[in-house]
Amino acid sequence: MEKRIVGVWPWFAQRLTAAFLVVGMVIHFIVLHYTIERPITFEKVILRLSSPGWVIFDILLLGAVIYHALNGVWSIMTDWNMGKKARKIWGWLLSIIGIASFFIGIYILIPFSK
């Protein structure tokens, strides 16, 4: 069996993003479900997203969700004791998926901030 070396930084980032996600989801839930007057319309969402602070918050939340999810998938996959080649392929694939998802999310959010 091959020895795996996992650094402290991915472990720490997983815990940090988990804490941010808990706080971020509470804020997101309160704002979207209790502070916006009903009915929620597209115009009200645009008004909220016209604030740069909300766009930054949503981008940070998006990044935390993507990192936390894909790092969790990676952690599960490394428990399967894959070979070096498979681990490298999956590492690159998850990285590409994460980076692409993050930039697609930014591409969608940025027009609202104008």
Description:
- This protein has 114 residues and is mainly α.
- The protein has one domain (8-113): 3 helical TM bundles of succinate and fumarate reductases.
- The protein is 78% helix and 0% strand.
- It contains four helices and no strands.
- It has helices at 8-35, 42-49, 52-78, 84-109.
- Helix 1 (8-35) crosses helix 3 and helix 3 packs antiparallel against helix 4 (84-109).
- It is elongated and about 55 Å long.
- 3% of the residues are buried.
List keywords for this structure.
single chain; 114 residues; mainly alpha; 3 helical TM bundles of succinate and fumarate reductases; elongated
DSSP E strands, number: 0
Strand content: under 5%
CATH fold category name: 3 helical TM bundles of succinate and fumarate reductases
Tell me the series of helices and strands, N- to C-terminal.
HHHH
Low-confidence stretches: none
| CATH class value | Mainly Alpha
Give the tally of structural domains: 1
How does CATH name the architecture? Up-down Bundle
CATH superfamily caption = Fumarate reductase/succinate dehydrogenase, transmembrane subunit
Number of helices: 4
Mean pLDDT: 90
Give the structural class.
Answer: mainly alpha
* Biggest sheet character: none
Shape call: elongated
Binned, the helix content reads over 70%
Task: Calculate the terminal CA-CA distance, rounded to whole Å.
Answer: 54 Å
- Computed CA radius of gyration, to the nearest angstrom: 18 Å
